[in-house]
Design a protein that fits this description.
This protein has one domain: Rossmann fold (3-Layer(aba) Sandwich), CATH 3.40.50.620. The chain contains 7 helices and 7 strands, in the order αβββαβαβαβαβαα. β4, α3 and β5 form a beta-alpha-beta unit. The protein is of the alpha/beta class and about 210 residues long. It has a 5-stranded parallel beta sheet, sandwiched between helices. The chain has a two-stranded antiparallel sheet with strand order 2-3.
Amino acid sequence: MRRVAVIALKVVAGLLAAVLLYGVVTFAQVWLAARRDGAHKAQAIVVFGAAQYNGRPSSVLKSRLDHAVDLYHRHVAPVIVVTGGRQPGDKFTEATASADYLHTKGVPDNDILREVSGHSSWQSLASTAAFLKVRHIHDVVLVSDPFHSLRIGGMAAELGLDASTSPTRTSPITGFDVATYMGRETLAVAVGRIVGFRREAGVKNVVIRRAG
């Protein structure tokens, strides 16, 4: 009986060690991805949405858009896709606020595509992937905050996009907040790799919309 208990304890200890190692390795990958800029000549730049206030991008969203504009003017891609739907009580979608901001930076409306239905990173990217494939666009550069890079890259792969990430370097999220987000992303990536990012995001049905 004692021998069985010892074996059971060793098994449990082994499993805990494996989980801990998996978490540490995943955190290291999130950290490394946050520091990598994979910008390259592509077909489109996809900007992940963030909060907007009555049509004005939040500082987080603005930093992402500014980076996308820089990539656009460097001719990384001819099209910018802005994403994000309308939160309860909002008059504007995140995508609309983003598009209006891009206009002020010299990006013509013909070079902007809008995804206006997403309420999460997965929903936005899934909807975006659907209408981009209709346009035969597969090669994209994803723009978000650094800590977000590994997860959105994994989601893009699951959705059949040939994607690289180019995170903004002017995010207002700094200090201890970064560590908090890195921890959350580590958990999300760790779970997403096991069950799939679609399930991790809690999405059962993706509504496909074309760009407005």
